[in-house]
Amino acid sequence: MISDKQQLKQKLILFQQQISEQKQALAQREMQSLEREKAIFSDLFEIVDVLDNIDRFVVSKQDQMGKIGKKLGRNIGAVHRKLLRQLRSRGIVPILFPDNKAAMETCKIIETREQPDLDNETILEILKTGYMNEQDGTVIRKAEVITVLNANG
User: Fold this and answer.
1) 116 Cβ partners below 8 Å, 6+ apart?
2) Cα angle vertex 24, ends 21, 26, to 5°?
3) pTM for the full model?
4) Which mean pLDDT values do the consecutive 10-residue runs of the chain (153 residues) have?
5) What mean pLDDT is reported for the chain?
């Protein structure tokens, strides 16, 4: 026959095992949730990229557009701004480069060019905007950039 003390010990062990299993299951669900969130943001960033490209095109051709083309451009711009506001309201903001320098943590260098009058890693062009979570500073998508790389270093 099992004593009360042994029964209590067995129950305590069982509870600890259950707690451990629950913690593991919760961690797994959190990981799945983060992966799903990352996939959703990735899809939204693709839409933002398309709208960025349309905005650039509309601005470059604005003098050649008629009334309907200009109105269409404004409407597309409004959708673009609304999507960016929605991302911002969830703490997702574009990565800024106040010193105009690329960093491995925030940039994916797509191309380099020589430009003797500028320092290496100076950003010449941002091809795709990078985004980060402003609450914890994690990079969700690195910016795709063209930077300076001089042969003389």
Assistant:
1) 150, 152
2) 110
3) 0.74
4) 85 93 94 89 91 86 83 88 93 94 95 93 95 93 95 72
5) 91
Token pair 């990735």 is found at 42
| Token pair for 52 | 């960025």
Give the relative orientation of helices 4-61 and 67-89 as an angle to the nearest 10 degrees: 160
Q: Is 129 helix (H, G, I), strand (E, B) or coil?
A: coil
Separation of alpha carbons 115 and 20, rounded Å: 58
Q: Token pair for residue 147?
A: 């930077």
Which stretch of DSSP H or E encloses residue 112? strand 107-113
**Which residue in 85, 100, 79, 84 sits closest to 143, CA to CA?**
100
